[in-house]
Each structure stands twice: as C-alpha cells, then as structure tokens.
Amino acid sequence: MSVTGPELLPGGLAFALVGGAAAVATAAATPVARRLATRSGVLVAPDDRNVHESPTATLGGTAMLFGLFVGAATAWLLGDFASVFAAPSEMIGVLVAAAVICAVGVVDDISPLSAPAKVAGMVVAGVALSVVGVSLVVLRIPFFETVILSSNMSALLTVVWVVLIANAVNLIDGLDGLAGGIVAIAAATFLFYAIRLGDAGVLTASSPGALIAVLVVGICVGFLPHNVHPARIFMGDGGALLLGLLMAASTMSVGGSTDAVFSGQAFFFFAPIFIPLFILGVPLFDMAFAIVRRAATRGIRVTHADKDHLHHRLLRLGYGHRRAVWILWAWTALLSGFVLWPTYTGSGDAIVPIGIAAVCLLLFTVFHPRLRDSVLTGSPDDHSDGVG
After folding, report:
1. What angle in degrees, to the nearest 10, is found between the helix axes of 310-317 and 351-377?
2. Cα separation of 370 and 284, whole Å?
3. CA separation for the pair 289, 360 (Å, rounded)
4. Closest Cα to residue 34, out of 235, 173, 244, 243?
5. 3-state DSSP call for residue 32?
6. Chain-centre distance of CA 170, in angstroms?
7. Residue 191: which residues within 8 A CB-CB, separation 6 or more?
8. Phi, then psi, of 377 in degrees rounded to 5
9. Which terminal residue of the chain, N or C, has fewer Cβ atoms less than 10 Å from its own Cβ?
C-alpha cells in the first residue's frame, strides 16, 4: 500500500526548522550549563584516563535536554508534524524517557553511581519507551521469516536495545567532540534513511522516528561548537546517555515497528533494525572490543574503565586530539555511506568505491604517523610505537 496525501512525511523545510530550533536552543543553553557547573564545582579534572589539560565543566547534557524539548515543542507547533502528535503518547514517552536517563547521567556526573544503578536507570527509560509503544515489535532477519514479537519479548528486547546503544555512545565519549560528531552523522544518516522509507511508502508520517532523528542532529550541532577541542564543556554521562536513548528510540520507531517490505534493496536492507548496527559501527565496535578485552584480563571487571578505547589507541599511534576525532568521524561517515547508497539507488554498486575508500582510510589510520615521523627523522626504523 502506498502512502499518499497527509500521510507523507513532512518536507525538508519542516525538518530544517525543527532541527534549527533544537540547535539554537542547545547552543544558547550550553553556556548557562557551563556557568552552573563551574559555580557548583561539577568539573572533570585531568587524570591518567582523561586527556584534557585543565578542569572542565560537565553538565552539557542538561543543555542538550533543553534543546530537545524546545525542538519537540517547535515540531508540535508546526502543522507538518500533526500526524506524529495526533496520538502524542509516543513523543511524550520519548521525552519522559529522555528526562529520566539524562537525570541518571547528571547524577552520575555530580557523584558517581555504581554500574548497577546506572543500568537500572537505563532500564527504567527503556521500559518507559516500551509502555508507550516505541519498541521493537518486528524482527526481520535476512534469509529468515519475519518474527512478530510477543509483548514480553518486545519489552525485553526494547530495554536491551536501549542499554546497548546508550552504553556504546557513553563509552565512545572520550575525546572533545567525538561522541557528538559521531551521533550527529549517524542521526543525519538515519533521518535520510527514514525519509527514503517514507517516500517508498513503508514509513508513515505518524511514526516519530524521523522527528527524533532530526532532533538529535539539532542538539548535537548546537552543542558541538562548545565541545570541540579544546572543549569548554563536556556533555557528561547525562548527554551521552541521552543521545544513546534517542538513537535507540529513533531506530526502533523506524526499523522495528513495521513488517512492510522495502523492495529492491540488497543485503541487510530487508531488515531495517540492522541499519544502526552499521551506522553506529564505531561506538558499537569499541564497546564490544572493550567488553572482550576486559573479560579476557584477569582481575578486571567488565565495567572497569580503562584507556584502551579506539580513541586512546589513535592517540598512542601518534595522532593529535583533533585528527583522532576526525578519523573516527570519517569511519562513521564511510559506514553511513555504505548504508545510504543502496537505500537510495536500489543497488550495491557502491561496494567497490566504498571498499577502496575504506582501505585508504585504514592505511592512513595505521601508517600515517609512522610515515610522518620517518620523513621528519630520516630513519624509518627508529619508530616502532604501535597500537597498545
């Protein structure tokens, strides 16, 4: 069945206005959050794990939450998103879950919580999404039949998805601007993906997935000018968990709630819920690698913080702060291109050029600092520092 008339997704201008409102509100609120954090002494001091040079304010998540609410209010006032707010329980649930998980993160920023306490907060936020219907209902696995989940299984997998994505974003938040940039690229990619599904008649205007995605883009764009190196404020766990929750909600709303077939697509594009596994490939790989690394080390708990994440390893390879961030942004953009190209063209003919680009980026990532140092010293054998 095709989608026509008022069921079409809003136009580009409506999305731009909502994203712009979220960005402006976040940008305006961030200095306020910074002053509040500074006066309250909520600062992150440099240490062996944190690579910044001076105590830095951390309550940026509160400004991002403010931008989210302003952006959502703007969408509500625009007639273009009337279908989303016709039955507003889903968006209200998203905002409530966002406030809950941001509050958990902010409390942890002020006075560190135990890992079980933080996970409990994520579970509460995930349950809130499940209750209002922003959940995994359909699980389509390539080469297998589509599975319609029972209510109990849907609730369980929804919570697991929220905890997974929120932790992935939180763990990658280790350099100035890194998490904000990665999530901005990922959310923009998922927005274009949702728009494509809408044009194909698979996604209706009543789904809040595209709206959530553009709100994420907006709050990231508004926050990044304050957060790029050298950062004047950090998003903290409040911001990182908030972004993870919103990305989980958007991806479930778009890819986990319809069993309609998006024909003409190859590979995993029959299964939309698998798309974020590629778009968010950098933080998800970093989280998986961290779990395996810590589990394989005796005497180290899986929740134990360390300095062996992807961004730390890039720094040890010899990259500066900004360049390490740009490299991980580039990997996210490359994976996003891998998703969007066949989605819009209906073919997989981008595998070769994207594969070549991936090889070039890999070679640059691994060898550039060594080649540079070899040229400067004139001795290619003097520098053997590698990944720690």
Report:
1. 40
2. 27
3. 23
4. 235
5. helix
6. 9
7. 15, 210, 213, 214, 217
8. -95, -20
9. N
- SS3 at position 347: coil
What are the pLDDT digits (tens) for 58-104? 999 999 999 999 999 999 999 899 999 998 999 999 999 999 999 99
Q: Could you tell me the two tokens for 254?
A: 């778009």
Better pLDDT: 149 or 2: 149
Rounded-to-integer distance, Cα 218 and Cα 207, Å: 19
15 to 11, 20, 37, 78: CA distances (angstroms): 7, 8, 32, 10
Domain boundaries, the chain: 5-377
The partner residues of 44 in beta bridges, in order of sequence, read 56
Q: Rounded CA gap, 102 and 104, in Å?
A: 5
Of 257, 255, 249, nearest in space to 93 by CA: 249
CA 245 to mean position of chain CA atoms: 9
C-alpha distance across the termini of the chain, in Å = 54
Could you give the CA distance from residue 217 to residue 80 in angstroms, rounded to a whole number? Answer: 19
User: Given the structure tokens 């730390």, which residue do they identify?
Assistant: 312
Type of residue at 79 = G
- Give the span between the Cα atoms of 276 and 255, in whole angstroms: 9
Global pTM value: 0.84
β-bridge partners, 343:
none
φ, ψ (nearest 5 deg) of residue 148: -90, 115
The rounded radius of gyration (Å) of the Cα atoms in the chain is 21
